[in-house]
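Hi V.,

You were right to ask for the full record rather than a summary. Here it is.
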Amino acid sequence: MIQSAQVASKFTLFTHHAKTFPDLVTALRNSMLRAGVFKSEKIAEEQVVQVLNFDIHLAKDYRGKRYIERVTECTPVHSQDEYSTDFRKEKTLEGKFDVFFDNATQYFRKITDKKVYEYKNILEYIDGEYVITNKMSDQNIKEMRLNMTETDAEDFDNFVEKHWGKESVFRIDEYKAERKEEAKTKRLRKTQKETK
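Predicted structure:
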């Protein structure tokens, strides 16, 4: 399921029985490890959270009626490579060792740091009604907006503005203008290369 969600699909739907979002990530990660797809827990977990944008968690009340208990958004945490190459500039062996140990510390922090994702509830069922609890990420707002019809997009923009403010609305016109400018720049560079 994770592998098929990574390529050739706009979205993937599946069911699960995890009680919490971290339990879902752990169960999928462990399934990938058991299947032999990965050897490293961290890499397997990174692959899982790359495809889990949202978890729509259902619950059942005491009457047996199912309802959406919460909608949780997952955001992968991307670590930055912050290793220093300043050892080349160091004049003394002690200075080179200092830079080396700073890099080694950074390396081990990255290897042992378990946080590869953040999650937050966007919507929750509280006291008999649905409540918007947190803002959706700008990236997911953008990706959702780009895959909507004009009518759906207008309704979505109104929803985003109502709950998270006008600045959170994805500006499709600005986006299209930026893509157009990028394409123009690429064509210009290609033309310049060809004339050389």
